[in-house]
Structures are given as C-alpha cells and as structure tokens.
Amino acid sequence: MRLHFVASLFLALPLLIGNRGASAQTGLFPAGSRHLYVHCEGKRHGPAVILDAGLFRDSTDWRLVQPEVARFTQVCSYDREGLGKSVVDTGAKPETECIDVVVNDLRKLLKSAHVAPPYVLVGHSGGGLRVRRYTRNYPDQVAGLVFVDSAHEEQIWRFQAIDPRSVQGPPTNPDRAICGGGLPYPGEHLTWHTDKPLIVLEHGIPLTFDEPLAAHTAEFNAAVDSMARDLASRSSKSQLRIAKKSGHDIMLDEPQVVVQAIRDIWGKVTVAIR
Predict the structure, then answer these.
(1) Contact 116, 138 (CB under 8 A)
(2) At what angle do helices 155-162 and 217-232 cross, to 10 degrees?
(3) pLDDT in tens, 219-249
(4) Spatial CA neighbour of 230 closest among 164, 166, 170, 151
C-alpha cells in the first residue's frame, strides 16, 4: 500500500421524471451551477437508495451492487464534478470543493432528477464523510444509512499520530482539510450522532503497508478497526458487520454483503414509514 492510500481510504439533458414510482432517467442533470451524471435503476418502493463512491472514485464502483438493489427499490449512483461521466462546469479540480458544497450538489441533483426523499444513503470510503454531512445538513431527507468501509473524520490526525509520514493524500493543512473533508483539527473528536438506523461494514482482510510504514501495520489496522467501531456507536440503532473476505473495496470483493446491508436497512425503514 502506497503512503497516499493510507489517507484516501476513508474521500444535452434528458427529460425529467415526475412519477416517484418510475425509474428516473440516467444522464446529466443540473445541480446548481453544475451538471452531474446520475444513473438510476429499479421501481421505487419505499425510500430510494443513493450510492456515494469514495475519494476520486465514480459510480462504476457500484456496478455489482446497483442491479441487485434495483430488484427491490429505486437505486441511484452518481459522479461528482470532474469524475466519471460528469462534466467540469466550474473549473474546480475534482475533490477540492468544500464538503458542504458537494453534498448540496447532490441534494440539487436528486431534486433535478425527480428522486424525492426519503433516502437510504450508502457511502464507501470518503463517501461516508459526505453521507454523514448530508444527514447532518438535511436530516429530514434521510431514513437510514450504510457505511461501506467508511473513512472517519479523525483518521488523518490518528494516522499522523502513528507515523507523520502516513498522510500524503488529502490536504494536511487544517483549514483546507476541514473545508475539503469536514475534518476536525488534530486531537479533536467527531461529534456526529444520529437516531437513524445504521449498518457499518468493515473489511475483514487486514491492510498491508509498504516501507517505511510496514513496521506500524498492526497499529494502523487497530486504528482502522477502532474508527469503524466508533462509527457503529454513533447510533442507538446501529450494527457493525465484518466482510470477512474483503479488502477496502467491499462492494467489489463481496457485493452481496453490501446488498444485504442495504436491503436490511431499507426494509427496516420502509416498515417504519408505513
């Protein structure tokens, strides 16, 4: 594993659809000053499922998960500006926008594509940060959550405490980091909590590291496990599940584990809504 990966573990328009029960169009839709690509499948029953990919990743990461979720409800994946099939409207480099701007883009995109709340939000790696911020900013729109080997807001300073050389990916300047990823200052702890049903998926195959970080492999893996367990403590309606045969990309290594977690949360919140 390269050094920068330690930090990045965990960052013509189609016709619009007015019928909540039908599948939304797939293509570019306006999201404020941007046009972002969204891909939706399935007929809606209960909340729609929204899939958010990790740092510098796009909607194709969900290619093994999305068709299976579409068997029981509407499910949408999307590409952030400059990634995948989304265009660059504002000139911003990918993954440099403040997190509140990015989650507001998603809110506007879903509105443009006529994918109405409530949602089950699913975030992989850095997508977990955005999913939590979306829940904080728009709590009434979110019914449930699934974190897929999610990044943790404290991970940069936790990794640096183990070895200062470990973080070379996301910005390490505190002001930029807070803007870019919603990250606390060194030593500060995540304050986010929710009353939403939540499943946290953690990889089961230990991470490995190249030199000079190899000597700290056990410490890094212990920190990652501790942060996953911390995320699972953030809701009274939460559960931690280990994907025993997976590395970081659980949705590609064991897609059925992700699909089952989504189905379980979706089923729970659908019953509650009815």
Answers:
(1) no
(2) 160
(3) 999 999 999 999 999 999 999 999 999 999 9
(4) 151
Measured between alpha carbons, how far is 187 from 266 in angstroms, rounded to an integer?
35
In the chain the domains, ranked by start, together with CATH numbers, are: 10-152+196-208+216-273 (3.40.50.1820)
CB-based contact 39:86 (threshold 8 Å): no
The strand ranges marked E within the chain are 27-31, 34-41, 48-52, 75-79, 119-124, 142-148, 198-203, 238-243
Q: Mind listing the pLDDT tens digit for each residue in 164-182?
A: 888 764 444 555 554 655 5
What is d(CA 5, CA 252) in angstroms, rounded to the nearest whole number? 18
Q: Which two tokens stand for residue 105?
A: 């883009």
CA distance 239 to 203: 14
Tokens of 53: 């990919």
Residue 194 backbone phi and psi in degrees, to 5? -150, 160
Residue 235 DSSP class: B
User: pLDDT per residue over 38-88, tens digit each?
Assistant: 999 999 999 999 999 999 999 999 999 999 999 999 999 999 999 999 988
pTM equals 0.89
Q: How many CB atoms lie under 10 A from the CB of residue 186?
A: 14
82 within 8 A of 105, measured Cβ to Cβ: no
CA gap 177, 131 in Å, rounded: 17
**Cα–Cα nearest to 148, from 83, 91, 66, 73:** 66
Rounded Cα distance, 26 and 13, in Å: 10
The CA dihedral of 190, 209, 199, 95, to the nearest 10 degrees, is 60
Give CA torsion, residues 163, 168, 170, 172, to 10 deg: 60
